Amino acid sequence: MNINDLLNHTSEWLKGSGPNADIVISSRIRLARNLEKIPFPHWAGKDKREEVLKTIEQALSGLEHLKQGVILRLAGMDNLDKQFLVERHLMSLEHAQKTNYKAIAVDSEEVLAVMVNEEDHIRMQVMQSGFNLFEAWNIINQIDDYLAKGLRFAFSPEWGYLTACPTNTGTGMRGSVMLHLPALVMTRQVDRVLAAIAKLSFTTRGLYGEGTQATGNFFQISNQVSLGRSEPEIIDSINGIIQQIIEQENQAREAISAKNKPVLEDRINRSLGILKSARIISSQETAELLSMLRLGIDMGVIKDIDRRRVNELFIITQPAHLQKLESKKLSSEERDVKRAELIRNKLNI
Amino acid sequence: MNINDLLNHTSEWLKGSGPNADIVISSRIRLARNLEKIPFPHWAGKDKREEVLKTIEQALSGLEHLKQGVILRLAGMDNLDKQFLVERHLMSLEHAQKTNYKAIAVDSEEVLAVMVNEEDHIRMQVMQSGFNLFEAWNIINQIDDYLAKGLRFAFSPEWGYLTACPTNTGTGMRGSVMLHLPALVMTRQVDRVLAAIAKLSFTTRGLYGEGTQATGNFFQISNQVSLGRSEPEIIDSINGIIQQIIEQENQAREAISAKNKPVLEDRINRSLGILKSARIISSQETAELLSMLRLGIDMGVIKDIDRRRVNELFIITQPAHLQKLESKKLSSEERDVKRAELIRNKLNI
To answer: Which of A81, A119, B216, B268 makes an SS bond possible with B296, Cβ 3.0 to 4.6 Å?
Structure first.
């Protein structure tokens, strides 16, 4: 397998299936791990970082999940490929910058992704479609157990797993759920809802993680505290919070539908009409219109397009994806034209 | 024939044919005539107005053009029918108000329309599709000659035909041309062009005549002076002015096309996409989007829809037309829904 094989593949988290798939795009569990007695990447010298890289590459190469996958060093990797992996949510934007002594490992189904020498020696994630954190936890827990056999992780009986940033210390786990909340946005309740969960130590981010804005009404919600409780307890508390948000989004959808269904249907159908006909379209407008289209599918207004096709469009209309699909560099203006063309081709069937 | 027969008929002026039909919707010649020795309608008493009405009805009934047409008194006519005739440009808004002792005559092709006891005893118009004032003049001139055999028109050897408003005295003729000038609007040149022709004693009006705004980039241009020159001379001068405006609109279209064709194509296709998909649409938005669609057809961007269908949509999406098509009164909100439905049905073929 190589990176280009991913181009025509639907990532696990984009399948549009799984529990509550009408509101929950995907569930993700991430674990931070570090090798004992070696400084964290930001403090380690070149030799140490190379040593870490080799040690972890070696351990990963025995992993069953990666038999059909790739383990790639980032140094020398094409910028477009790095951006492509970021757009697919397989690695962080931070990992794509300053790429010396870094690696990324991805399985062919894009369930597992492992970053080596990002903020911690190991940052691994498992993604599942829909509202499915426990399943993601089961998978990543087995992978963690396997790696722990060959690697000695920095662990303190008092604190748990040690990490570069103290907020990750303890379980080293972060669970996050990507939610599509158009009705809470439309009814202007989303700020209130997100402010409430912030008080409970949950953070909200946009589609691309830390520091990104919510586009297309997507919100990524994750736990802030990873210390003092077991992983299943943390997942339970995330599930409880997400369940409440799902309930509120459902109520908002019902309220809009009861109050002004024709206006909603008009907006959804116009969004589809523009997507099917535009000749130039920005990624921002694309995200907004696809969000309305997805709501239309989820509410039964649009019946002949499935959720998976919309999810895919969210991803493949991004800059690096467009350029890899065209096999050449494109200016921003060229991308807006190609994006519109791609969307028309995928929707006018 | 009765009024409802017009509902599914394409008016002469909407055929989308004739010279310069890509810019000129229609050409119209209107003549004002009054019976001699009888006060103008606004000054005449009831008996006199009834006498005028009977005399003119009698004269019109012999007219070959009206053999397949209707001559209708407005008193007691349904308000929706009156609005319907105004929307079809067969009579003025003024004529539809205070309807006593008034009549309207229309032929089955909607080439000829005669208002009795509007501002003058007779206001007759002949419409032709495209840029075709002389043809309209030839037709109306014959009708005028025929009527002059049976009626004695107020005429002064010095002043010509006498009319209620002095601006019509002389030939009693007004020639007007309905132009579609989207490129001059887009390039913000239209105000300059219209200001220039105003200095040459031409007036510009919107789609529905005096006092109406230009909607859908339609402009109706007509001569202000009807005195001191023969009808063909006046028509010649109108033709010269219109020819120049056509030239300027064509140049503006070429300039937009040369400079930024993709942006234009995007706007045109989005307009069509919205028209094909909206569930609620106002008449104002409809006019704007249809204007872009018409430009798309005229510039060869849209190939599978003809001009005539767009012209018809301009007319049948108006309030009275919508209500007559549905055979019932509709609120403004209901009309916006029915309008969207009608447009979808006519464009999604």
So the answer is: B268
Mutation target to probe the B interface, by most B beta carbons within 10 A, among A263, A267, A277 is A277
Q: Are B104 and B85 in contact (CB under 8 A)?
A: yes
Of B263, B273, B340, the CB nearest to A274: B273
Q: Domain with B171 in it: what CATH number?
A: 3.30.590.10
pLDDT at A17: 87
Q: Are residues B207 and B230 in the same domain?
A: yes
Nearest CA in chain A to B266: A279
Tens digits of per-residue pLDDT, A299-317? Answer: 999 999 999 899 999 999 9
Q: Judged by CB atoms within 8 Å, which residues 253-272 of A form the interface with B?
A: 262-263, 265-266, 269-270, 272
A to B CB pairs, distance under 8 Å: 48
Q: Which residues lie closer than 8 Å to A71 by C-beta, 6 or more apart?
A: A57, A60, A61, A103, A104, A105
Q: What is the pLDDT of residues B68-92, one digit of tens each?
A: 999 999 998 999 999 999 999 999 9
Residue B198 sits in the same domain as residue B256: no
Residue B284 burial (C-beta neighbours within 10 Å; 0-12, 13-18, 19+): exposed
Which residues from B are below 8 Å from A270, CB to CB?
274, 277-279
User: Residue A333 is encoded by which pair of tokens?
Assistant: 């203006």
Angle at B86 between CA B82 and CA B88, to 5 degrees: 115
Domain that residue A313 falls in: 250-347
CB contact under 8 A, A279 and B266: yes
